[in-house]
Amino acid sequence: MNTSTSQSLFEKAQQYIPGGVNSPVRAFRAVGGSPLFIKSAKGPYIYDEDGNEYIELINSWGPMILGHGHELIQKAVSDAIQHSFSFGAPTRREVEIAELIVSMVPSIEKVRMVNSGTEATMSAIRVARGFTGRDKIIKFEGCYHGHGDSFLIAAGSGAVTFGTPDSPGVTKGVANDTLTAPFNNLEAVQQLVDANKGKIAALILEPVVGNMGCVLPKEGFLEGLRRICDEEGIVLILDEVMTGFRLSKGGAQERFNIKPDLTTLGKIIGGGMPVGAYGGRAEIMNWVSPAGPVYQAGTLSGNPIAMAAGMTMLTYLNEHPEVYTQLEQSGNKLTTGFKSSMQKLGLNYTLNHIGSMYTLFFTSNAVTDFASAKSSDLPLFGKYFHAMLNRGIYMGPSQFEAMFLSTALTDEHLDRIIVANEEALGSILND
After folding, report:
1. For residue 218, what is the DSSP state?
2. 68 — phi, psi (to 5°)?
3. Is 267 noted as a catalytic residue in this protein?
4. Which string of DSSP letters, residue by residue, matches 220-265?
């Protein structure tokens, strides 16, 4: 496989861009080698600058739930562009998409559009602090909520790949206000709450983690968090930037029947365009300026191009529940095939899966939190990543990432991925 153009571009990029990339995980540091520079994508395929074709399992880290370049989304963007690119003023589409989000997500009564998942989580924390009059928050080790200072404490995903989970530049004061607990550990959460009575404004988590690999909540964990937050007056924030509109129309909270106080959204609600949102109980959201005293603003918030793409995407998902049936079937088919291959090869790696999200962890330990995720054999994952890439399967370049399926994947594509997986595992065993 010739990747000379990508290698040349990476060398040039490093002269002008820190590390040669605009987001750390893209640099392939965790798997070795040089990153591929992507030129185009369509349906289930992605194409690099050297013309190589791959079936891809990243889907822009989640938003391409219908596959790349979906005709309806393309038309919506094309039509919106005819009316200019940005106004910095209210538009009809903002009202329509807000109404649709409120109708689809059980816990959201009011919603504010922003420009990214990071902006959504930062804003949600600020509103929770303003609403409660408290300073501290609880987050979970390995959960990644963007690159806001409050969250870069025992962070996962790109921060792990970068090698410094506690990033320089985060002040001691901010770190002191961020309490961390192991995911799936209610006892640890209760201990933090007991030690900080009346000081905790919010508890934030990914209901299904996608940023230390795919990690599911244990039975009763989310319910236990809801109970603790109710007892202590803590704002429960579900970060559904990845899981929102992916695990069901109403996200993970609908699937697990948990009602948070605030929800953060992103990825899918922009149909691939840069966008995020946060929303929840009206009494909390009414603290957001200009309705209330908690300031948050953005010139490009509710950008008309992003709103057109997002409105089209969410309308399609709302009107086509069969999308979720197909994604469920695809996820089951793929992971069943992976398990069959591992059994045939005598391997006992851990495969976590829910709906259209999965991660193959190179460890025999059950992966239920960040500590168990880190027991994975990272050099072996790097070999597996390149073995899959050489077979035309493009995955996230880190063990600590969930993979995302799209409706563009047919049974034939899934069969090709299953075969490639078995061949890749076999090849690294014999390496």
Report:
1. P
2. -80, 145
3. yes
4. THHHHHHHHHHHHTPEEEEE-TTTTTTSSTTHHHHHHT---SEEEE
Q: How far is CA 248 from CA 96, 254, 256, 301, 330, in A?
A: 20, 7, 10, 25, 14
Alpha helices in 141-248 (DSSP H): 158-162, 172-176, 186-195, 221-232
Q: Which of 45, 54, 110, 239 is catalytic?
A: 239
CB atoms within 10 A of CB 164: 10
CA distance 319 to 32: 43
**One of 110, 136, 139, 267 is an active-site residue; which one?**
267
| Tokens describing residue 422 | 């078995």
d(CA 365, CA 356): 22
Buried b (16+ CB within 10 A) or exposed e, 45-60: bbbbbbebebbbbbbb
Q: Which two tokens stand for residue 114?
A: 């922003």
Amino acid sitting at position 413? H
Residue 205, strand partner residues: 238
Q: Choosing from 45, 144, 384, 394, which is the catalytic residue?
A: 144
Residue 121: CB atoms within 10 Å? 28
Determine the length of the chain: 431
**pLDDT tens per residue, the chain (431 residues)?**
899 999 999 999 999 999 999 999 999 999 999 999 999 999 999 999 999 999 999 999 999 999 999 999 999 999 999 999 999 999 999 999 999 999 999 999 999 999 999 999 999 999 999 999 999 999 999 898 988 888 877 544 444 433 334 677 887 788 889 999 999 999 999 999 999 999 999 999 999 999 999 999 999 999 999 999 999 999 999 999 999 999 999 999 999 999 999 999 998 999 999 999 999 999 999 999 999 999 999 999 999 999 999 999 999 999 999 999 999 999 999 999 999 999 999 999 999 999 999 999 999 999 999 999 999 999 999 999 999 999 999 999 999 999 999 999 999 999 999 999 999 999 998 87
CA dihedral 135, 202, 192, 196 (to 10 degrees): 30
Tokens of 216: 């599911």
Respond yes or no: is residue 316 known to be catalytic: no
Q: Is 394 a catalytic residue?
A: no
Q: Which amino acid is at 370?
A: F
**Angle 396-401-402 (CA atoms, 0-180°, nearest 5)?**
95
Are the C-beta atoms of 64 and 411 separated by less than 8 Å? no
Number of C-beta neighbours around residue 262 at 10 A: 27
